[in-house]
Amino acid sequence: MDTRASILNLSRWKPWEPVLWLAAFAVPWLLPGHALIANEIAIVALFAISLDLVLGYTGIVSLGHAAFFGMGAYAAALFAKHVMPDPLVGLAVGTAAATLVGAIASLTVMRGTDLTRLMVTLGVGLILMELANKLDWLTGGADGLQGVMMGPLLGRFEFDLYGQTAAWYSLAVLFLCFLLARRLVFSPLGATFKAIRDNRQRAGAIGIPVTSRIAVAYTIAAALAGAAGALLAQTTGFASLDVFEFHRSADVMLILIIGGTGWLYGGVAGAIVFKLMHDLLSSITPQYWTFWLGLFLVVLVLVGRERLLKPWTWFGKRSAP
Predict the structure, then answer these.
(1) Nearest to residue 270, comparing CAs of 282, 281, 280, 260?
(2) Which residue in 280, 279, 283, 273 sits closest to 309, CA to CA?
(3) Cα 151 from Cα 306, distance rounded (Å)
(4) pLDDT in tens for each of the 321 residues of the chain?
(5) Coil, strand or helix at 310
(6) Helical ranges in the chain per DSSP H
(7) What is the CATH topology of the domain spanning 19-284?
C-alpha cells in the first residue's frame, strides 16, 4: 500500500464517529439541565485539539497556549461590546486576532530546545496577561470586561439562561474545527508535521522546510485556541484575566494526558473526562477535588491508559473480547 492510499485509509470515518457526534448534539435537547456543562466541554475540547496540533502532531511543547485562548476571548468580547454583537462575526474577529498573535509568536518557537520553547511560550502568555491587566481602560483590568451582550445567533436564536443555544453553537463550531483539523492531519502537510515530530533532523534532510512548517502548525493551533476563547466569552458574556492564567495551559495539558496526544479524539475524550470529574468531585469535596484528580492522573500514568481502560489486558490477553 502506497503512502497516499495509507493516508486515505486512515482518514476514513469509522462507524462509531457519526453516532458520537449525533449523541453530542442531542445532549442539550435530551438533557437540558446539562446544556451548560456540554457547552464547557465543547469549548475545552476545541482548546485541547488546538494544543494537540502542536504537541501531539508537531512535537512542540507549550506552556503558554492560554495566550491565544485569552486573545480570542478578549477580542470577541471587545468587538461585541464596542462594535457589533453578532456572534459569528465576533467569532471570526476573535479567531483572526489569535491567528495574528500566533503568527508573531511562532517566530519564537522555530529554534531552540524544548526547555527554551517552554519558557518562551510561558513568557508570551504572561506578557499578554499583564497587558490586559494594565490596559484597564479597555479590558477592565482585574475586574474583567463586563457588560458583554450577544445578539441572537443567525438573527433568530437567542442565548438562553439554560445554555441550550450556547451548547449547540459551541458544538457546531467544535465539529467544524474538528473537520478542518482532521483534514489537515491526514493531508501531505499534516504528514510533514508528524515527520518533524518524529525526527526534525531527518525531516530537514529530506527537504521539508522545518521552520516554516512549525510556524504554520503553531499559527493554525493559535487560531483554533482563539476560536475556543471567543466561544467562552460569547457564551458567558464575560472576559477576565483568568483566560490568560497559567492554569488554563496546565489544564489543557492534563486533558491531553488523559485523552492521549497525536489523536484528535484524545482532546475530546480528555475534555469529557476532565470536566465531568471536575463537576462531580468539586460537588463532593469542593476543597480537595484536585487531590482526587491528581490521584487519577498518577494511576493513569503508572498503569497506562490502555491497561486502565481495558482491565482484561491485566491478565495477559492480547485483544479485547
Answers:
(1) 260
(2) 273
(3) 45
(4) 455 666 566 667 778 888 888 988 888 888 888 888 889 999 999 999 999 999 888 888 888 888 899 999 999 989 988 888 888 999 999 999 999 999 888 887 776 666 777 788 888 888 888 888 888 888 877 777 877 788 888 777 777 777 788 889 999 999 999 999 998 988 888 888 888 888 888 888 888 888 888 889 999 999 999 999 999 988 888 888 888 888 888 888 888 888 888 888 888 888 888 888 888 877 777 777 777 777 777 777 777 666 655 543 443 433 333
(5) coil
(6) 3-11, 16-30, 35-55, 66-82, 87-105, 114-134, 136-139, 164-185, 188-198, 200-205, 210-236, 246-259, 264-284, 289-303, 305-309
(7) ABC transporter involved in vitamin B12 uptake, BtuC (1.10.3470)
Report the C-alpha gap between 44 and 199 in whole angstroms.
Answer: 30
d(CA 165, CA 296): 33
52, 179, 228, 273 from 233: Cα distances, Å? 22, 23, 9, 23
pTM of the predicted structure, to 2 decimals? 0.87
Q: What is the DSSP letter of 315?
A: G
Secondary structure (3-state) at 301: helix
Rounded CA-CA distance 98/94 in Å is 6
- What are the Cα distances from residue 214, in Å, to 55, 202, 286? 11, 15, 41
Q: How far is CA 237 from CA 6, 145, 233, 319, in A?
A: 45, 9, 5, 48
| Chain Cα centroid distance, residue 46 | 4
Kindly give, in sequence order, each residue whose CB lies less than 8 Å from that of residue 53, ignoring residues fewer than 6 positions away. 181, 184, 185, 193, 217, 220, 221, 224
Pick from 11, 118, 107: which is nearest to 59 by CA? 118
Q: 145: helix, coil or strand? A: strand
Domain residue spans of the chain: 19-284
